[in-house]
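Try this one yourself first.
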């Protein structure tokens, strides 16, 4: 009589085959060891952190950060240890509910493309427009006020009072230089002290060089007397004169006019003392 097989002997062999297939981490680890590589070697070659390499070889994919990253690490490690990554990726998809859906790229691209168009106001253009407006207003104001009010505005800015009505007549110009003191009039010359000699030299008909000295020889004046200018000299005793062009000079001595008829271009050397006009 033949003996039948026991229930244990009739079990299918699929379970043995499933147990014979190594896990993803085990397969990567065995391939790494067979290639003579260390975890540090694989980490340096793939730039996957050592801790993640250890975790994947232990079939712990939580530290990968998601299915997409886990599949990427598996592919990278498989290539580093020289095995085909396709069966490992299929095994990972079977164990984790299938391959993850790809992230749609079009919406992301559209969002990035549209985002720059939603910018705020162009403040640069607004500022330029404001500056142009201010410059135009200032130019218009300056052009409008550049007429009769221009002088008054300038005077007010300098602290002086603006002129009103018609322009005041200018002050008559004096032919004498600014540093020339006003000369005494004829009446003032007539009232010259009697104890001194007073000589007034006027360039009535042209310019002339003159020199004047007191009784000690000290120079009272030595220079050019322009037409219309006058000089008055006094001394307790006498005044010595040198006239470069006596014909252009008119003299008053002690309040009296000297009527000598000097020729133009003539050089005269004169000395006057107290009392009546007389040439010494």
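Now uncover the answer:
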């Amino acid at each position: 009589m033949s003996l039948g097989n026991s229930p244990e002997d009739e079990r299918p062999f699929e379970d043995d085959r499933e147990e014979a297939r190594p896990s993803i981490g085990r397969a990567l680890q065995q391939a790494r060891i067979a290639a003579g590589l260390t975890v540090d070697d694989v980490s340096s070659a793939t730039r996957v952190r050592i801790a993640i390499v250890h975790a994947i070889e232990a079939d712990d994919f939580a530290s990968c950060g998601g299915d997409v990253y886990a599949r990427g690490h598996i592919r990278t490690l498989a290539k580093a240890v020289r095995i085909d990554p396709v069966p490992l990726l299929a095994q990972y998809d079977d164990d984790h509910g299938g391959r993850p859906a790809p992230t749609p790229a079009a919406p992301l691209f559209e969002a990035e493309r549209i985002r720059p168009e939603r910018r705020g106001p162009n403040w640069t253009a607004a500022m330029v427009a404001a500056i142009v407006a201010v410059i135009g207003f200032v130019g218009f104001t300056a052009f409008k006020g550049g007429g009769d009010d221009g002088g008054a505005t300038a005077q007010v800015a300098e602290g002086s009072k603006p002129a009103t009505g018609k322009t005041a007549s200018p002050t008559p110009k004096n032919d004498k230089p600014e540093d020339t003191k006003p000369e005494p009039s004829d009446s003032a010359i007539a009232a010259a002290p009697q104890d001194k000699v007073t000589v007034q030299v006027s360039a009535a008909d042209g310019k002339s060089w003159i020199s004047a000295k007191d009784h000690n020889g000290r120079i009272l004046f030595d220079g050019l007397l322009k037409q219309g200018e006058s000089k008055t000299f006094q001394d307790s005793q006498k005044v010595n004169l040198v006239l470069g062009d006596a014909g252009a000079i008119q003299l008053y001595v002690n309040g009296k006019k000297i009527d000598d008829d000097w020729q133009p271009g003539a050089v005269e050397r004169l000395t006057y003392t107290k009392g009546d006009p007389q040439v010494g």
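Discussion: The CA atoms of residues 127 and 133 lie 10 Å apart. Residues 1-18, 105-114, 150-163, 176-182 have pLDDT under 50 and may be disordered.
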